[in-house]
Fold this protein.
Amino acid sequence: MNAVILAAGKGTRLKPYSDILPKPLMPIELDASGGFRTIIERLVSQIVAAGVTGIVVAVNYKAAMIMEALGDGEALGARIAYVHQSVLDGNAGAFHRARHFVRGDDVIVTDSDNLISDDAVFRKMRELHERERPAVTVGVCRVDDVRKFAIVKMDASGKAVDIFEKPQSAEGWGNLAKSGLMILSAETAALDPSAYVAPNGEYTTTQIIKHCIDAGKKVSLFDIEGGFKDIGTWGEYLPVLRAALGG
């Protein structure tokens, strides 16, 4: 199993911070030496803890800064390669450009702005994925405001039957939100990009999941204990930073 981290976006919701640093280099906690650790460094360490060391990082905005910070990954126990998403055509567009690195294997795909408190999250997801062998395993949790997330609709048996981006209410959909964490089977990872183009023309990971549901393929849902924080906004990021600094 390999992993792809989607880190190409401009982080416009974090301006003016993101005018200086790319979102994946947001400091989110203190390390053992008292220095800051970034969100992408935490993600890499969580992926490595799952026994996955081959990681591809998709970059665009301020790519050189991300590449300099992570290097070849050796300091984090990983082997990191990079691909450049020359056109920001959606998060699955970034994944498509990385596919040649992970061809023929299952792959973890994760956004670079989801903060998960459970450092074993990818290990637990991998165990579920390898046990159930679905087309895709999706990290999910319940949320209060469905308008901010892609919502997975389930039937009475708990099976995923649809997914929809940012419904106006939970009525008819529920409140089970897709996080930015997923694991694709080798077959799903090899899909033609036409399978994950959304109605707005972007290539999205949400559309990958919808394709699998509509095609009758197995979709496993992994409940993220403690939930996740989308720290790509000031409202979510500032409390994390304040907590890291002791309030």
In short: Helices lie at 17-20, 39-49, 63-70, 91-102, 121-132, 186-189, 205-214, 234-244. The radius of gyration is 17 Å. The longest helix spans residues 91-102.
